[in-house]
Amino acid sequence: MPQRIKALSDSCVLIPCTFTIEERYEKYMVEPARGIWMTFRDIVFDSNRRYNDNTLKAELLGNVTNKNCTTIINHLKTSDTKRYFFRAEPPYFSFPQSVMLEVVVKRFHCSLDSPDRPVISPSSAVKEGAPTSLACTAPAPCPREPPALVWSDTLNGSVEIEQVEQQDGTKAVSSVLTFTASHLHHNKDITCTAQYPVGSETKSAEEVSTLHVLYPPKNTSVLINPSGEIHEGDHVTLSCSSNANPAVSRYTWFKVKGDNITEKSVEQNLTFTDINPSDSGLYYCEARNEHGAENSTAVQLNVACCM
Hints:
Elements: E1 4-8, E2 13-15, E3 34-38, E4 43-46, E5 58-60, E6 71-73, E7 82-89, E8 93-104, E9 119-121, E10 126-127, E11 131-139, E12 148-151, E13 158-165, E14 171-180, E15 189-198, E16 201-210, E17 213-225, E18 230-231, E19 236-245, E20 250-257, E21 260-265, E22 269-272, E23 281-289, E24 292-295, E25 299-301, E26 303-304
Parallel strand pairs: 1-8, 10-17, 18-26
Antiparallel strand pairs: 2-6, 3-4, 3-7, 5-6, 7-8, 9-11, 11-14, 12-15, 13-14, 15-16, 17-19, 19-22, 20-21, 20-23, 23-24, 23-25
Pfam family, one: Ig_2
Domain Ig-like: 115-209, 217-304
Protein name: Myelin-associated glycoprotein-like isoform X1
């Protein structure tokens, strides 16, 4: 059984539990067999007692003869926060393994009974245009009242909900959000909120994940400085800018003259320290990273000849 389970006051909790015994004791595993839950000192549940006669308001769901001691505890109170041990009769054996049950409660109008935060996975970077899935998983200690999982933004995608069993046998709810990654999603925070119904109240816990999208250059453009009329001998700089993730790794400048295109530079800025009329023409830049490239719109550079 799990070493630790956290549950909400006034709710319930499922303790998944199985056991094994030595082969020589198998002959004693016959009906009627009873299950007992104990603390260090006291018996708090006996499956042979009536429900209301037990200190722990629980139901033994498993069959002890089949070595299944799965139990659900109802109407949890803070006083139920204890370490519990299981005993099977027969074979009249108290197992040394235990489960620590933590029941959290609200006091003084402060929310001290917040459930564990859900987990969002994966958090790795994704490539633009690729189908992408985010899974939000929250524990469901009380299977009768599982949490509702709500995304702050579905990103024009679809959501599927399923109940899952975790490695320690406890239950959880998973919400899988599937969408197509876009550069507009990069660095966007998305929140998954687990809402637990407890009586007439709802207790919530949330987790935030920041999306990381890899994409080729976007919005590539050219800026001419100075922007006004250019004269022979002026100092002129053409700057190329682009939005990309990862950042642009290579800029290339081209000059267009008729049907000829000439590569001029592989720097982000194309600089003329002493410009002359022969430098006039159409210029554009190419921005490139590992995911692709984009060309800017060509701009006309006109150099006026000195009088």
